[in-house]
Fold this sequence. Notes:
Layout: E1 9-16, H1 18-26, E2 41-45, H2 48-63, E3 65-74, H3 75-78, E4 83-85, E5 92-97, H4 101-106, E6 113-119, H5 132-137
Amino acid sequence: MTPLPHSETIALYLALCPQQLAALIRADWRRIEPGQGGEHFMFLKLNQRYAEMIARQLIVPLHGAAYVARLIVSERAMRHYDIDTVAYEEHLEYRVPVCELAYLNRHILGEAAIVSAFRHQQSYSVPLGTKPLASLLG
């Protein structure tokens, strides 16, 4: 019996705006696209919590919602990219030039998965001296 070749993979996390999520869905969850801000790089995080922080702090205020996608990628495909750190040791990321996304997309294994979603918190003002439910219903 011949052993199957073992493929090393890596999980990467990407904070997405709603337009990027829509593009991912149109691509059957198999291709990422840059945002519409003219970015030159895609920053793929090695830590889910770091991607979630970026989604909450940077994308939600601009777009009203943000999502974090998990991509399983061939480790070999990522070898020619450097891993950078931003401020803290757990803030590790690959900086992939947008012009190389076609290469990266060919090495996404399976479908991307949304692991987190964020929206602006909704808040309501309740006038003093009123019952909250009655105030909200008008």
